[in-house]
Amino acid sequence: MDNLLRKLPIGIQTFEKLRRGDYLYVDKTDFVWKIASTSTPYFLSRPRRFGKSLLLSTFEAYFEGKRELFEGLAIAGLETEWKQYPVLHLDLNAEKYDSTRALTEILSRQLTQWELKYGKGVDEETLAGRFSGVIRRASEQAGCGVVVLVDEYDKPLLQALGDNALLDDYRKTLKAFYGVLKSSDRYLRFVFLTGVTKFAQVSVFSDLNHLQDISLWPDYAALCGITLDELLRNFRPELEILAASNDLSYDETVGRMKRLYDGYHFFQNSLGVFNPFSVLNALKAKVFDNFWFQTGTPTFLVELLKRSDYDLRTLIDGIEAPASSFMEYRVDANNPIPLIYQSGYLTIKDYDREFGNYLLEFPNDEVRYGFINFLIPYYTSMANDDQGFYIGKFVQELRSGDYDSFLTRLQAFFADFPYELSDKTERHYQVVFYLVFKLMGQFTDAEVRSARGRADAVVKTPKYIYVFEFKLNGTADQALRQIDDKGYLIPYQSDGRELVKIGVEFSAEERNIGRWLVG
Question: What is the CA radius of gyration of the chain?
Answer without folding.
Answer: 27
